[in-house]
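Run log // design_07
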């Protein structure tokens, strides 16, 4: 009996009970042979799609942001985004930690107290990237978002269609999708 209790205690101390790890098998697909160095540099967030209720409320007010992707010291990514908010330019940094499988990152949101997995599902590096994020912990648990990154501010119709198809494949509908307008300040250079 005591031995069983010891084992039990050991498992708890090792964090094996109560906080199961996100099963790795659940990961979304990523761009085959993903090359992080080619993914670096400037992107514009041209399209977003999410079924979350805050997104539905806010999407009409959102505009395109410029994101500079740089490598971070832990092998992950440092995303610095500049966007227009309430007639002011704002800059926000997001640090993505690398996961064992290349093309997957984890992000801890201090605002939501949640943890997310961000996957670069498809990219040709010089034109577009399709990203998918899902919440795995905390308040963001049911969070899902598809993002269209474009190297240019104007986006061809074919790429928009690609993003619509991608979002639909993730279970997101037409009304969950928004193509962001270019603000007249902040993202130019
Ligand atoms: C968003 O979609 C996911 C997957 O279909 C679902 O689990 C989640 O509950 C949905 N969230 C909302 C707010 O509708
Ligand atoms: C992330 O990049 C920004 C902009 O270059 C920089 O100011 C910041 O120190 C970087 N943060 C980390 C943790 O590397
Ligand atoms: C989007 O999906 C439709 C229907 O499956 C397909 O005909 C079209 O070629 C796709 N478009 C792109 C840009 O992938």
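design_07 sequence
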């Amino acid at each position: 009996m005591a031995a069983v209790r010891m084992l039990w205690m050991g498992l708890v101390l090792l964090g094996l009970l109560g906080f199961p790890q996100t099963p790795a098998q659940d990961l979304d697909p990523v761009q085959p042979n993903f090359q992080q160095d080619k993914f670096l540099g400037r992107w514009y967030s041209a399209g977003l799609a999410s079924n979350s209720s805050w997104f539905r409320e806010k999407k009409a007010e959102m505009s395109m942001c410029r994101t500079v992707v740089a490598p971070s010291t832990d092998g992950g990514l440092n995303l610095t985004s500049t966007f227009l908010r309430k007639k002011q330019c704002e800059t926000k940094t997001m640090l993505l930690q690398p996961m064992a499988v290349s093309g997957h990152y984890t992000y801890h949101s201090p605002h939501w107290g949640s943890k997310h997995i961000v996957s670069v599902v498809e990219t040709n590096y010089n034109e577009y990237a399709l990203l998918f994020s899902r919440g795995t912990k905390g308040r963001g648990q049911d969070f899902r978002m598809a993002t269209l990154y474009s190297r240019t501010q104007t986006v061809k119709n074919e790429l928009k269609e690609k993003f619509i198809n991608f979002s639909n494949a993730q279970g997101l509908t037409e009304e969950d999708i928004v193509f962001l307008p270019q603000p007249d300040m902040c993202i130019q250079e």
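The first strand starts at residue 41 and ends at 50.
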